[in-house]
Each structure stands twice: as structure tokens, then as C-alpha cells.
Amino acid sequence: MATANKNLSDYDKSTIPNAKDFRFGIVVSEWNDTITEGLFQGAYSTLIENSVSPESIIIWHVPGSFELIYGSKKMQEQMVDAVIAIGSVIQGETKHFDFVCEGVAQGIKDLNVLHDTPVIFCVLTDNTMQQAIDRSGGKHGNKGTEAAIAAIKMADLRKNA
Ligand SMILES: Nc1c(NC[C@H](O)[C@H](O)[C@H](O)CO)[nH]c(=O)[nH]c1=O
Ligand SMILES: CC(=O)[C@@H](O)COP(=O)(O)O
């Protein structure tokens, strides 16, 4: 289902596990910071709305989405129950977009395979700035909200697995 057919901010609160005792790490890329700040606000507010304490959320910033890989690896070492990696990659004139997107996706996948703390892929990979705006609090909702819900569910799965 394409994002156009689903609002990224919609979720049924009655289906969300109790998150009050979980600790989360959020790693935020500074590239396209107006977008990543919107994604962060969506993720952070959703964690708080689901009873996570502000003191239980560690927040770090990295230069760009490619650095989310290293930042998330170090965040996994911080005794958190899940990590949310936030970035916004927007197509430019060259193939660099392809390499950054593929590199980050593969790197975060690897962190989920190699280590026991789930890392949630909250990285927008858009053709245009408008697409990024639409998915970071615009008409299609906020992927940060979606990522926070995924983080809570994966932290709960990890606890019970
Ligand atoms: N063009 C975008 C980048 N590029 C920077 C890389 O992520 C990386 O920081 C650099 O190659 C140094 O290692 N990053 C984004 O997050 N978004 C972009 O649109
Ligand atoms: C995703 C990128 O690295 C890209 O935005 C950089 O722009 P350009 O391809 O024009 O150098």
C-alpha cells in the first residue's frame, strides 16, 4: 500500500503495548533539518503520549543520514530498548541519492541483524521536498509517529521473546 493510501500518523492506541518502563534512543540527521525536526517531533510526542518518560529518551544528532548507521550502533550500546533513526534524503542532480539511501538501509538492516536492540528505519527517501513535507507532518501524516509506534512494538517483542 502506498503512503498516499495510508495516513502515517494513524494508529489504534488500544493496540499499543504499555511503554512506560521502556527506554528509547533517537538519532536525528541534520541534513534537511526542517524535515528531520518534524519527524523528530512526531516520534518524540508519540512516545510521550504513550507514557514514556522524557528522562527515558536519549537524543543525539548526526551530520547526515549516512551517519545514522554509526550513531545508531553507538546508541544500541546505551542500554535502550529500541532506537529510532531519523533522516531525510532528497534526490539531487546525481546518483549520490541512490548510494546514501541504499547504504543507510543496508547499514540499519545490519544493525538489526548483528545486535539485540531494534533500530527503526525512520528515513524518508523522497524525489522532492514536497514529498518530504507531506510525510513529516503534512497531508500524509508523520513517519515519525509511525516509527515511534514501531519502536514501542519492537521493544515489547524483544522483552517477551
Ligand atoms: N544529500 C543528503 C545527504 N548527504 C550527506 C550524507 O548523508 C553524508 O552525511 C555525507 O555523505 C558524509 O558522509 N544526507 C541526508 O541525510 N540527506 C540528503 O539529502
Ligand atoms: C542525496 C544527496 O546526497 C543529494 O541530495 C546531493 O545532491 P546532488 O546529487 O545534487 O549532489
From TrEMBL:
SUPFAM superfamilies: Lumazine synthase. 5-amino-6-(D-ribitylamino)uracil binds at W31, S65, F66, E67, S88, V89, I90, F121. CDD domains: Lumazine_synthase-I. One of its GO terms (biological process) is riboflavin biosynthetic process. Its EC number is 2.5.1.78. GO terms for molecular function: 6,7-dimethyl-8-ribityllumazine synthase activity. GO terms for cellular component: cytosol; riboflavin synthase complex. Keywords: Riboflavin biosynthesis, Transferase. (2S)-2-hydroxy-3-oxobutyl phosphate binds at E93, T94, R135. Transmembrane segments: none annotated. Catalyzes the formation of 6,7-dimethyl-8-ribityllumazine by condensation of 5-amino-6-(D-ribitylamino)uracil with 3,4-dihydroxy-2-butanone 4-phosphate. This is the penultimate step in the biosynthesis of riboflavin. HAMAP family: Lumazine_synth. Belongs to the DMRL synthase family. This is 6,7-dimethyl-8-ribityllumazine synthase. It comes from Confluentibacter flavum.
